[in-house]
Design a protein that fits this description.
- This protein is α/β, with parallel strands linked by helices.
- The chain folds into two domains: 109 residues, Rossmann fold (3-Layer(aba) Sandwich); 154 residues, Glycogen Phosphorylase B (Rossmann fold), CATH 3.40.50.2000.
- It is built from twelve helices and ten strands.
- Strands 7-6-5-8-9-10 form a six-stranded parallel beta sheet, with helices on both faces.
- The protein is elongated.
- The chain starts with 22 loop residues before the first helix and ends with a helix.
Length: 315
């Protein structure tokens, strides 16, 4: 059975801008979904769930998917709306097995599947750059992602402060949009006396991020919770050694001492980093294994297309 190519509607206009929390926005979205008569509807994030539920009630034969991107419910409405949508969805797709285990009720897991979230394979940084000299291992750290409380970046700063105490030339670049944490993080950097070593870069396009990657040897992320943690995967794919909290799906692909370092105390973590900087061959072994872990991984677009075709082919 074949299906037509995916259609998008870049020029559709649905009236003046409306808050996603306003009932009018949900009514317009429902109207659009009913009029378009889609073969398959995929909903993601809790605010889309009321429209998703209404559509499934009004058009029960429409194939529907609820897509989960995180291993935790952010708040009560998130939990209630997503659970209700799970009851009606034909399938539940998730970014990781840990998300399925944490959020999908046991009775609904037979309708769940995990999709790859890797959209492209980042180019692994070369062991020997042009010029013939081996790549230099430096105590340079980077984080990219949203600057918000659940990313727990104050703990990352505590770890970096310990590293800086051992390796005074260490640097830490923090890249990403502010989601309410930037002012507090800047204040913490000042308290630690690290203004000269920590830089807040702001948001960057993917291409610019990739271009900067060879400035770093370590990726530092200390999230309180995660799903698949795409930033960690991207960093590993480029050969950066991840220094991360083992939450969500991270422990399944970032093994402590094999493809990365699991964060413990700031002092112990800093000692392990310093040991790698002092032994470049050990860092290089971790870097190679980290990059190899994702060299042949399936891509999101392939998994997504395959899952759509599979569901649409079902009677």
């Amino acid at each position: 059975m074949t299906h037509s190519a995916v259609e998008v509607f870049p020029d559709d206009w649905h009236g003046p801008a409306t808050s996603v929390n306003h009932p009018v926005a949900h009514w317009k979205l429902l109207q659009f979904a009913l009029q378009s008569r889609a073969d398959l509807v995929v909903a993601s994030l809790w605010r889309s769930c009321p429209t998703f539920i209404a559509l499934k009630v009004m058009r029960p034969r429409t194939k529907t998917v609820l897509f989960l991107h995180s291993a935790v419910d952010v708040h009560l409405l998130d939990k209630l709306f997503n659970r209700a949508a799970m009851m009606l969805a034909d399938e539940i797709w998730a970014d990781s097995a840990s998300t399925v285990e944490a959020r999908v009720p046991a009775a609904a897991r037979k309708r769940a599947r995990v999709l790859s979230f890797l959209t492209q394979r980042p180019p692994a940084l070369m062991d020997v750059p042009p010029g013939g000299q081996s790549r230099v291992v430096t105590p340079n750290f980077v984080y990219w992602g949203r600057l918000q409380s659940e990313k727990n970046l104050e703990h990352a700063l505590a770890i970096f402060a310990s590293v800086h105490g051992l390796l005074p030339d260490a640097k830490f670049d923090i890249i990403g949009p502010d989601r309410g944490a930037l002012a507090q993080l800047r204040a913490r950097v000042a308290e630690l006396g690290l203004d000269h070593a920590v830089n807040f870069i702001g948001a960057l396009p993917q291409e610019a991020l990739m271009a900067r990657a060879d400035n770093y040897s370590f990726y530092l992320q200390t999230s309180l919770f995660e799903g698949m943690a795409m930033s960690v995967i991207e960093a590993m794919g480029m050969g950066l050694v991840p220094v991360v909290t083992p939450v969500g799906e991270i422990p399944s692909y970032c093994q402590d001492g094999h493809t990365g370092i699991h964060v413990t105390t700031p002092e112990e973590t800093a000692q392990r980093v310093a040991a790698l900087v002092a032994a470049p061959e050990s860092w290089l072994a971790l870097s190679r294994r980290a990059a190899e872990r994702w060299a042949q991984a399936s891509l999101f677009q392939d998994d997504y297309r395959g899952a759509c075709n599979n569901l649409l082919s079902q009677k």
